[in-house]
Design a protein that fits this description.
The complex is a heterotrimer of chains A (367), B (159) and C (195). Chain B is an alpha/beta fold. Helices cover 21% and strands 29% of the residues of chain B. In chain C, strand 2, helix 5 and strand 3 form a beta-alpha-beta unit. The chains are: A alpha+beta (367), B alpha/beta (159), C alpha/beta (195).
Chain lengths: 367, 159, 195
């Protein structure tokens, strides 16, 4: 005897503990199994691209902080690269090293959050988050030492960085980097062989390599599917070609591989920061650029490997102090293209885990 | 280092296969006619190996809308910029969708539809993505005016 | 593979759009800040019993927040809840995501018109007595995004606000200061009536 059933629609979000921000999904369920998913965006659409056309290039720097607010330094970096490419501005050596150190420390902080909240979604309520927050607070202390802000830094400028590092920064960063591998191992030991983690993530939400490339995913999501594409190696920007580090890839493209890729990337970032702290020269930290910068007419696209993926800025200039078009290539939005395909056939609890493993930030998705 | 292909070379290769596809080209980009966009993009994907669509952007110029496609070939580590234009005069502005070639175009084309009003023929789910149903207008068009307090430096405000 | 959906997406979108337009039309004037306790409205001659003062003490030190983290300020709010700044020692250990179980709505981050509809709905679902804390400049006035076509220029257009915490984002200490002010307000409700 078969039961006569009907699929049901449930609404997840926008106010929800596990949606990583204001994101709404309309899930069609057949019992507990998801048969369809419709994401609804726009709950944090603030119109940054339109507002940016009314402000000068330098005034848009704080807007870039608020895109992916978990990795503000990276956003600043990408925007500065785009404007420097547009206007042909050179950056002094010391500033390049400072930018790389900041970007990699930011990557560690962002991945700590990503892994912590992924585990929070799996049910390990707050314990991994609080452990990882401990290190993140140390990184935020380093940033506060440099620029006075904990979250939205606005530190990187066109032609360098805003001001020089204080004297206590490099010893403090050295101390942090020396202890960090021990902490990453601690997390790995606690988590990697945990049965619940393995059961909930192995084989769940598998993304094949061809679909990952076809759907324009980038960052850890792409690399976990086995595609070794990292902009720091494929198209090195700034001075990344001077550092030795590996690209961490996964094999299956499931949630477990995305978790492993993020842990691996943290370890590689520690390597890069260690090398950069050893090689950083003395010198100027900023090329003088007018605040009312008028780049020549033209366009430029610059992308970096942000913690969430490939973050790109496409700027079109008409010779005036304000950009004619300010476009953000947001990795989080584009990574969400595959959400429906990854989730169909799994249960609601798996939806939360798969969504957490893609690691998005709504500030970037909606802009 | 990603090798950015010369627009002229690629235009020549596209022109050999599809004679009317290329409208113009320069060192940095290839400008295609919008009717030939889908076929030319298919050729770029299959034969020249551009398997990754990095981004699609729309720009509102005074006489036309321009769509800019940044393509990347992961296999060969090459990049290319493709452009196409559509007229603003018509009430209904339409361009072919490339979703059938690259799934990554899905949400990006919806965003352009939402913020510029450019429709994409062949898109499976073309509806507003960020703004709500019933919002009047398309914000990123230049004729959609915002009243922004404090925009620009003192004395440099032209608007 | 096309699936038969048990709902019509366009119908739901149309309804949502209509709700947003209605809320935009209805939110032209800000709600006045609830400051009646300052005006002495409660200055009645009521002798405060031990039970009442005990209830006050409990109410003050066990406000359960519903963290309405919308954008960047949410992560300073999480930072305040984490072990370094520890909001738990102020009795706010339990952050309930269900409005039926919360009495404080902590709005942190930029509010857009699209999000204002769920926010108002959740505010209405909370039981009295309830308080609202607006964290960050985006909730106070629209912040860096004021003038945008989709940002609400101030949370007090949607709900009455008890405490405003400026900052972009405010430090966790700023949030803690705001919370202590709120506790004083919660307790003072009855304190004034004592005289």
């Amino acid at each position: 005897m078969t039961l006569d059933t009907q699929p049901v629609m449930i609404n997840i979000g926008p106010q929800h503990p596990s949606t990583h921000g204001v994101f709404r999904m309309r899930a069609t369920l057949d019992g507990e199994v998801i048969v369809d998913l419709e994401p609804v965006f726009g709950y944090l659409h603030r119109g940054i691209e339109k507002l940016a056309e009314h402000k000068t290039y330098l005034q848009n720097m704080p807007f870039t902080d608020r895109l992916d607010y978990l990795a503000s330094m990276s956003n600043n970096f990408a925007y500065a690269l785009a404007v420097e490419r547009l206007a042909g501005i050179k950056v002094p050596e010391r500033a390049e090293y400072i930018r790389v150190i900041m970007a990699e420390l930011m990557r560690i902080a962002s991945h700590l959050m990503a892994v912590g909240f992924l585990l929070n979604d799996m049910g390990a309520f707050m314990t991994p988050v609080l452990y990882m927050w401990r290190e993140r607070e140390k990184i935020l202390d380093l940033f506060e030492m440099v620029c006075g802000q904990r979250l939205t830094y606005n530190y990187i400028r066109f032609g360098g960085v805003s001001h020089d590092l204080p004297d206590e920064f490099i010893p403090a960063a050295q101390r942090f980097i020396d202890e960090m591998p021990h902490f990453i191992d601690e997390y790995d030991r606690l988590l990697a062989e945990n049965e619940v983690l393995l059961a909930r993530t192995r084989g769940v939400g598998v993304l094949s390599a061809e679909q990952a490339v076809n759907a324009s995913t980038s960052g850890p999501v792409l690399r976990a599917s086995g595609v070794g594409w990292d902009l720091r190696k494929a198209n090195p920007y700034s001075i990344y070609d001077r550092f030795k580090f590996d690209i961490v890839t996964g094999t299956n493209g499931d949630v477990y591989d995305r978790y492993r890729v993020r842990i691996g990337e943290m370890q590689q970032s520690v390597r890069i920061v260690k090398q950069a702290l050893g090689q950083i020269p003395q010198g100027e930290v900023r090329t003088k650029v007018s605040p009312k910068l008028c780049p020549p007419k033209g366009e430029a696209y610059a992308a970096i490997e942000a913690p969430k993926g490939e973050l790109g800025f496409y700027l079109v200039s008409d010779g005036s102090p304000k950009p004619y078009r300010f476009k953000v290539r947001a990795p989080s939005l584009i990574n969400l293209t595959v959400l429906r395909d990854l989730v169909v056939g799994w249960k609601v609890a798996d939806l939360i885990v798969i969504f957490g493993s893609i690691d998005i930030c709504m500030g970037e998705v909606d802009r | 280092m990603t090798q950015l292909l010369s627009g002229r070379d690629v235009a020549r290769q596209i022109g050999e296969r599809f004679p009317d596809a290329v409208a113009a080209s320069d060192e940095n980009a290839v400008l295609l006619n919008s009717e030939a966009l889908l076929e030319a993009a298919g050729f770029l994907k299959e034969d020249l190996g551009f398997d990754y669509l990095t981004s699609i952007t729309a720009i509102d110029y005074p006489e036309y809308f321009e769509l800019v496609y940044h393509l990347t070939s992961i296999k060969r580590n090459q990049g290319l910029v493709l452009k196409t234009r559509c007229d603003k005069g018509d009430a209904h502005v339409e361009v072919p969708s490339v979703v059938s070639l690259w799934q990554g175009a899905d949400l990006q084309e919806r965003e352009i539809y939402d913020l510029f009003g450019i429709s994409f023929k062949g898109h499976p789910n073309l509806k507003r993505i960020f703004l709500w149903d019933g919002f009047q207008g398309h914000p990123l068009r230049k004729d959609f005016v915002l009243d922004v307090p404090g925009g620009g430096l003192k004395g440099s405000r032209k608007e | 593979m096309e699936v038969e959906r048990p709902y019509s997406a366009s119908e739901l979108d149309r309804i949502e759009g209509a709700e947003i337009q209605a809320l935009m039309a209805a939110s032209k004037e800000p709600y006045p800040d609830p400051v009646d306790w300052l005006e002495g409205e409660g200055r009645r001659n009521v002798i405060l019993t031990t039970t009442e003062s005990l209830v006050d003490w409990c109410k003050r030190y066990s406000t359960w927040p519903i963290p309405f983290g919308l954008a960047c300020c949410a992560f300073e709010m999480v930072g305040a809840f984490a072990s370094r700044f520890d909001l738990t020692r102020f009795g706010m250990d339990v952050f309930r995501f269900s409005p039926r179980q919360a009495d404080l709505m902590l709005v942190a981050g930029t509010l857009t018109w699209k999000m204002a509809v769920p926010l108002r709905r959740i505010y209405d679902q909370m039981a009295e007595p309830k308080w609202v804390v607006a964290m960050g400049t985006c909730t106070i006035s629209g912040g860096a995004f004021r003038g945008s076509y989709s940002v609400v220029p101030g949370l007090n257009l949607i709900v009455p606000v008890d405490v405003y915490i400026p900052g972009c984002p405010p430090r966790p200490e700023g949030l803690i200061h705001g919370i202590t002010l709120l506790h004083a307000k919660v307790a003072r409700d009855k304190l004034i009536k004592k005289e």
